[in-house]
Every structure is written in C-alpha cells, then in structure tokens.
Design a protein that fits this description.
Elements lengths: L3 E8 L6 H15 L4 E8 H7 L3 H17 L8 E4 L5 H10 L4 H5 L2 H12 L10 H16 L4 E3 L5 H18 L7 E3 L29 H9 L18 H9 L2 H12 L4 H27 L2 H30 L7 H4 L13 E6 L5 E6 L5 E5 L5 H14 L2 H5 L4 E2 L6 H16 L1
Parallel strand pairs: 1-2, 2-3, 4-5
Antiparallel strand pairs: 6-7, 7-8, 8-9
The structure holds tryptophan.
Length: 435
C-alpha cells in the first residue's frame, strides 16, 4: 500500500512567531509522527525571492525557520526536510508545467489579481511593479507539489486556489502526456486556531503584532505584558469572549487549565496576574525548544549539512521522476527515439474539445467545455436538471457558434478566452459530429 503523502512549503522571509507555531509548525510535527504518512516539509526560498529583495534576510530566515521546525520536534530522519533551491528539478519542472498552463488561468490568480486591482484603483498601468515571478508563482508552487506526487497539502485558506491550479496543471499534463502526476488536494485544518496578536487582530507579520516563537524569556515576558486588554480593574469580573490574552492561553493550555483561567476571569483576576499566568504557560512549552533552537542557530554549518542531506534524500525521488517527465515530453536522447517507438499520445492534441457535465454543491447541474489541453473554454450557468444541461450541450454540438447567442443567458463568460478560440472549438466539435 502506498502511504499518504503530505507536503507543505514555508516561504523564507521572516522569523517564526507564535501564530506560525500554533497554526502550522505544531500540527505539522504532530502529523509527521502518524504512521502511514510520508511528510515533506521544505523551505520555499525560491518563493521568498518573489517578495523579498534582501539577500541577508532570506539567508537568515532560512536558518531560523529550519531551526524552528527542528527545535519543535521535526525528525529529519523520518520526514523529507529540504531547501527548495537545492532541488534543481523543481525549476526544471516549473518550465514543463508553464508550457501546459493557460496564461488566462494565471491571470485569475488572487495574488496577481490583487496587484492588478490595486494598480487599477490607483489609476496606474495594471501590471505596474508586477514581476513575472509573481505571475508565475502558482506554477512554481505546482512544481513543488507535483514533483513529489503529494496527496494532501496543508495550507491556509488563501492558498486553496493555488492547489486547485496545481490540479489543473497536473490534469492538463496527464491528458497530453499520460498519467504522470497525482492530483493534489488542499487540507484545511478547521480545528487549528488562528492566534490573535498583541493588538487583538490576527497575529501576522503584516500587522506588526507578532510574538517571536523563540524570543528570549525576558523579551517574551515584556511582549506579553503589552497585550491589549480592557480597562477593568482588579476584582472586577472579566470577559473571556474577545480576550486576546485568553485565546492565546487556550492555544497552549489543557482543558483543565483553560477552565481554571475562565474561573479566574469571572473572579476578577487582575490583568497583570493573568499576563503572568499566560507568560509562564507559554514559556513552559517553549523553553525546552528555545534551548534547542539557540543551539541550532549557533551552528549554521551543521544546519547546512543537514539540509544538503535532506536535499539528497528528496532528489532520490526527484531525479528519476524528472527523467521520466523529460522522456514523456520529448526531451530525449536522440539515439533513444527508435527504441521508444511512436509516442503514446500521438494525435491526442488534435482531439476535439469535450463537454464535461457535473453537479455542484448547490444541487444544480453544470457543464463546461474544455479543450484537449484541459483549458476551460466555456462554462454554463446552473441548470435544474441534467436533461436541461444535456439539451443545451446538444444544441451547441449541432449548431456550433450560432447557438451561443441563443444560450447567452445560460452561459457564463470565461475570462481570457478569445472569441476566435471558442468559435474554432465549436467548429471542431461540429465537424467531429458530422464526421
Ligand atoms: N506559497 C505558500 C505560502 O505562501 C508556500 C509554499 C510554497 C507552499 N510552495 C508550496 C505551500 C507548496 C504548500 C505547498 O504559504
């Protein structure tokens, strides 16, 4: 039985904070200990280049993130733990995937669209300050994921679209060149808390309200003392609801400890005392890891060796797989041509586009038209019954382009598809039907 492969990347632009620990590191380390799972955790330093132009920061962050994960208990013997830029097969695969990815698909990526919207709102050119790196980000991420045939990708909600795009790229490639890739799925951990930061908003670098995971003990105490609270005096009962302090405590404490603090709130514990309780509780969990972290950070050469060993282990999978993919697309030794005969997929790219019917969660019936490369050409609105959807499809097949106008209300436009591409596709369908 093949085991479940779980993979996630961490962009190397910052210093891990308590929110990263509770939201990503701690659950990932726990998951890596489950049997029947193979875990891949990597330092996404190529991704870091997209948003950070400070070389020292990238280098430092790589060391700090690697040290944090190891200090938190990740066992590099048990998992695949590597630095993205040590795997040359990843940028190589990025290119192969770029060649089966519609530009229109990337136009729809949230991160890119957000930049375009910002520029449009500011009245500047849509692509001002948008690098090709940002635009290609989903392709690089798909290469990370598809390279290791990963099944589950634990990510935050903001990354779901990227996983869907990786699936799209995998299906396009598989369709053209045979079944090489596993289709990945996003795994969203509903039960994992998002931590509030010092000011009560979500703990995040962009709000500058974080508590570094391995802040020295005295700094941790000072930072916790600065968490916002309301102005209730000692002796006055306090609300746990909406209390950042309480939520932080809950993320570290047992159920019993949490209910004891809830009682203390009701009994009017002074904020200063509550902060002391929180500080001691967090420090109790973090202190042993902090000692390991400090030792790891103090030995960059040791870390370098460890990461290179991780890369060698990952490349035992990546190198043969990349060779298989090169072979599949035709990047072949010339003297091997005769041996492998006709490509298995010859003529496939000339196959006509196809309709796909499906039912959505809303209970309605939909169809879409995709070309041989898996690119979406036409998308229907919802139909009450599969029969209605089928009728619309039949009409498009028989009448081709002329049916478009008649069905206008039942079709949703697809961004990035040129009218001539659509009419060619419909013509090809009609021809196939008449043949
Ligand atoms: N883009 C992800 C983030 O910003 C990091 C990342 C890079 C990643 N490659 C990945 C996550 C592959 C999961 C799988 O959070």
């Amino acid at each position: 039985m093949t085991s479940l492969r779980v993979l996630t990347g961490i962009t190397t632009t910052g210093t891990p904070h308590l929110g990263n620990y509770v939201g990503a590191i701690r659950p990932a380390v726990a998951a890596s200990l489950k049997s029947g799972t193979e875990s891949f955790y990597f330092l996404a330093d190529y991704h870091a280049l997209i948003k950070c132009e400070d070389p020292l920061r990238i280098q430092r962050s790589t060391l700090e993130i690697a040290a944090s994960w190891l200090a938190a208990g990740l066992d590099p013997q048990r998992v695949f733990f590597y630095r993205q830029s040590d795997i040359p097969e990843i940028p190589e695969l990025t290119w192969l995937l770029a060649c089966v990815t519609g530009k229109g698909l990337l136009n729809r990526a949230h991160a890119y669209k957000a930049s375009v919207d910002k520029n449009t709102a500011a009245g500047t050119e849509p692509d001002t300050d948008v690098t090709a790196g940002l635009f290609m980000y989903p392709v690089l991420m798909a290469a990370d994921i598809l390279m290791f045939k990963s099944h589950k990708i634990p990510v935050g909600r903001d990354q779901i679209q990227h996983i869907e795009m990786a699936r799209d790229m995998a299906s396009s490639f598989n369709h053209l060149y045979g079944e090489h890739f596993v289709l990945p799925e996003a795994a969203i951990e509903e039960s994992v808390a998002t931590l509030p930061g010092l000011d009560g908003r979500k703990m995040s670098k962009s709000y500058d309200n974080t508590i570094p995971l391995f802040a020295p003990r005295e700094q941790l105490r000072r930072l916790i003392a600065g968490i916002v609270t309301d102005s209730r005096a000692p002796g006055e009962p306090k609300d746990t609801e909406g209390s950042a302090l309480f939520q932080l405590y809950q993320a570290f404490a047992s159920a019993e400890e949490t209910s004891a603090l809830r009682q203390a709130y009701a009994d009017g514990i002074a904020w200063g005392d509550a902060k002391q309780v929180l500080f001691e509780r967090i420090d109790r969990e973090v202190a042993p890891m902090r000692a390991r972290y400090e030792a790891l950070v103090a030995d960059p050469a040791g870390m370098e060796t460890l990461l290179l060993a991780g890369a060698a282990k990952a490349r035992q999978l990546a190198t043969p797989f990349m060779a298989e993919l090169r072979q599949a697309v035709g990047l072949r030794r010339l003297n091997a041509v005769a041996a492998s005969g006709t490509p298995a997929t010859a003529g496939r790219s000339a196959s006509p586009p196809a309709f796909k019917q499906y039912r959505e969660k809303d209970g309605q019936f939909y169809f879409k038209l995709v070309d041989a490369k898996g690119r979406l050409l036409l998308q229907s609105a919802g139909f009450a019954s599969p029969r209605d959807a089928g009728k619309a499809i039949a009409r498009l097949q028989d009448e081709g382009e002329t049916a478009l106008a008649a069905l206008a209300g039942q079709l949703a436009p697809v961004e990035g598809v040129l009218p001539e591409d659509l009419s060619m596709a419909l013509q090809a369908l009609k021809d196939a039907g008449n043949a």
